[in-house]
Amino acid sequence: MRLSVRRGVTGLLCLLVTCILLRLVQQALRCPGRRPVPPVPLVLVRDRRRTEYRYGRDAPLVFVGGVPRSGTTLMRAMLDAHPDIRCGEETRVIPRLLALRQAWARPGQERQRLEEAGIDQDVLDSAVAAFLLEVIARHGEPAPMLCNKDPFTLKSAVYLSHLFPNVSLSVYSNWSSSSTSSSKFLLMIRDGRAAVHSMISRRVTIAGFDLSSYRDCLTKWSRAVEAMLAQCSQVGARRCLTVRYESLVLQPRTTLQGVLRFLGVPWHEGVLHHEDAIGQPGGVSLSRIERSTDQVIKPVNMEALTRWVGHIPADVLADMAEIAPMLSRLGYNPNANPPAYGQPDPVVVNNTERVLRGDFKTPASLKGQPWVSLCGFTSTAPTRRGEKAAFTTRLQLGPKPPRSTDRPMKGINLRLSPCSHELAADTWHQ
Questions:
Q1: In terms of residue numbers, what domain contains 126?
Q2: Is the pLDDT of residue 108 over 60?
Q3: Which residues are catalytic?
Q4: Where would one find the signal peptide in this protein (predicted)?
């Protein structure tokens, strides 16, 4: 008996000594001047009912993007009308930070200097993730699923997919399932001729796009879409979904059912009536300086689908297949003006007739607001029933945007104008 007790005590002592030695070896192998990178802290946000939401790097995020004027604002407004999703306005700062992060990752003297200072790629990733999460979580009301709509973020879809990995949705009370999801991406696709005409006619400036030339803009559009599609393909079909603007407009119910199924959230009828949720608590919040605001306050309609027809120069139309090869790749007939986009749902036909007749009513949250001049673009109200005003926006009166004081930073060319749709780093030409 005594022998068994002694053996037991000896065994415990040996186990304890082994554990201590292993701990000492681990500490000795660590670099004395290097501290472990802490995980991204949780961002805590409370809604109007004082319900607390906690967001970390495993939070279910949705990134909506695409070439500007491709329906990104309409998509995010429809998602905002869902009670479990919040997108909000464009942040503008997120594409800037992603462009800087891309510059810091390039091999060169600057990266070497950062690494010599102990700022390696892991440290930068943790800092970028914390910044993005803070901005996305706090620039609007909290919701079980957060969404970001900055069009050019889809150029960094692969990087973002690594920053925000998988998550178990069971930790969110609004979902009862225990399925595993992840950050997901919605890439909006639109006929490049329509997107470019919208850029040019509405003076939506994008770095690198010459708004005086349809040929140049269509060429740049084709390259931009190709780059984003490559990112989406690399992320994979389980996490990145391409959505056609034309399908969203013509068959909104079927298209949104597919989108919500992809995101893993239940269907809600309100997404088909986003205009009713504008300005409502937990509804759709609009920016007074985004160029699409005057369009998304209307119900889904076909008014903008073929507006480009008759405006593109004949020589550009003749060379369309060579100028914008992505048109054919995406299924748009480059020689049809316009191509067959599909059959509209009856409700869309009715909405379009209402809008064209002038029967559309401005949302109550925007009534009584003065018509404003934005970036040298004067908004004018319709003078007669049924008369359409070009580029009109009923917006809240506010101070004029300050003149841009942004200066180019060494190593990356950043340009931002108060009248620009979005900051664009010079990466389309790379």
A1: 34-366
A2: yes
A3: 90
A4: 1-27
